[in-house]
Design the sequence.
């Protein structure tokens, strides 16, 4: 069980050999792959290419998680990762699993499709898959879980040059509120002044309370935040007169919760952010998120999300 904790290329190669030769149990393989995903923070490219053959055939969801996490950690340390042929080859493999628009031939493919979407999101460098992800998000034949996962795959990626697709989803009142809120969150990860103005204008005529409540609480938190990374957003929003039309029951309506503290004197602080998202079809929360980040001496440290 401790093989992955060694964290060497030889240990990764041994795991692949034991897995592909059938000399390891499924339980052992799951433990190894989980350990690879969570404990190897400075992987080499050889580790990634060593595990790549495990994606052939019926790869397990843990395999997707392990390899995509290695790619994310590798690319965090290496500049120019977006043009690395081996990395992009694996990202193409994940993308090909999505079949143009995540079309399912049978229900058994649902979990595999979900794993591929999450793997693309884990890499943080799957911008080439953006057209496919948008087609998946707009595919009305899919479950809401898959459509939301397609948008969540953008969470670690660089800012999109064109936000038209996201704005189209956000502004379409015929789309489920859960999907619209996730489109909004992707947009607000890299907010442009023009995008903010468009969102504020939309809020003034928004008819869906779940969407309006979430956007209102999120914008309100941005106005009040002391998080140093959001001060520019705060400055833009302070010039807007937003009506508290959507200040609704916290138990029934989607909302963003943010608490932060930063001391310029000590050059440290922290923030906690949470999203609770409902669908207009039910007052039972559909999804939630909790993010804890510390700001220490100019460095941002994310403890968990």
Sequence:
């Amino acid at each position: 069980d401790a093989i992955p904790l060694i964290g060497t290329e030889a240990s990764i190669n041994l795991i692949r050999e034991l897995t592909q030769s059938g000399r390891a149990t499924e339980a052992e393989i799951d433990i190894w792959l989980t350990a690879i995903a969570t404990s190897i923070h400075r992987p080499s490219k050889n580790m990634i290419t060593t595990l790549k053959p495990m994606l052939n055939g019926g790869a397990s969801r843990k395999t997707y998680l392990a390899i995509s996490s290695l790619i994310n950690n590798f690319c965090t340390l290496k500049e120019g990762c977006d043009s690395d042929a081996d990395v992009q080859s694996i990202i193409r493999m994940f993308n090909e699993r999505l079949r143009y628009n995540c079309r399912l031939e049978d229900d058994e493919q649902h979990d595999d499709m979900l794993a591929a979407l999450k793997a693309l999101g884990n890499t943080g460098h799957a911008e080439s898959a953006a057209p496919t992800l948008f087609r998946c998000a707009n595919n009305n034949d899919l479950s809401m879980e898959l459509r939301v996962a397609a948008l969540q795959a953008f969470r670690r990626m660089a800012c999109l040059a064109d936000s038209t697709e996201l704005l189209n989803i956000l502004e379409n009142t015929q789309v489920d509120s859960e999907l619209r809120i996730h489109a909004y969150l992707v947009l607000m990860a890299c907010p442009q002044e023009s995008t903010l103005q468009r969102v504020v204008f939309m809020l003034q005529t928004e008819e869906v309370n779940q969407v309006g409540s979430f956007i209102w609480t999120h914008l309100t938190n941005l106005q009040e935040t002391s998080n140093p990374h959001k001060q520019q957003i705060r400055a833009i929003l302070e010039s807007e007169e937003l009506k508290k039309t959507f200040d609704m029951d916290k138990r029934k309506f989607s909302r963003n919760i943010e608490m932060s503290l930063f001391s310029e004197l000590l050059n440290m602080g922290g923030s906690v952010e949470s999203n609770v998202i409902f669908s207009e079809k039910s007052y039972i929360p559909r999804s939630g998120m909790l993010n804890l980040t510390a700001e220490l001496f100019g460095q941002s440290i994310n403890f968990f999300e």
Q: What stands out?
A: Residues 61-77 form the longest helix (17 residues). The chain is about 50% helix and 15% strand.
